[in-house]
Amino acid sequence: MSKVVVVGGGVIGCAIAERLSFEGHQVTLFERDQLGSRASGAAAGELSPTSTTATATESARQSLQLFPELIARIEKDSGMNVEYRVQAGLQPAFDQEEATRLRATGGRWLDAQACREAERSLSTDVLGAVLLEHAHLTPPRFVRSLARAAAGRGAAIHEGTPVMGFERSGDEIKQVITPAGSHGRRLGCDRGRPLEP
Fold this sequence. Notes:
Elements: E1 3-7, H1 11-22, E2 26-31, H2 39-42, E3 46-47, H3 54-78, E4 85-93, H4 96-103, E5 108-111, H5 112-118, E6 128-136, H6 139-152, E7 156-159, E8 165-169, E9 172-178, E10 185-188
Parallel strand pairs: 1-2, 2-7
Antiparallel strand pairs: 3-6, 4-6, 5-6, 8-9, 9-10
């Protein structure tokens, strides 16, 4: 079991804390404001394979297929509903080049008339669209549920606690410094991530 410090309580930081605590590591997470109070809380919550290359689209579809298992685990462990739902969506093409790229992804192609029947508010300039499976969730609830699931496994989640600096040895971080008293609180970690030059 490693001692891990995560800096930042957005969706990435909370997802890391949840996964590492799930794997049995000792996790401490610091967030300078509230969990999900910045970009993660303002996101639309769309989980959508929207790449225009077949390889990337397949990779995105595979990633999307992993979500139901994750959602089931964190909803169970956190006791929260993240409002996850799956629905169909259109990725439209407005010129021939876009249409060619989208057709190459292997998704179901709808011609212009079928597009407008499916979505009446689409521009009459649309040439067609690929029908995609999309998923949505509610980002603030998702971030909170990740943190709550991690906390339920022993992770320490500190909101309103900015990280003031790091104590290094060579290119490794040995301690994380947070405000506490006149000299700051120092929390050690087992192995620091190398810093960018």
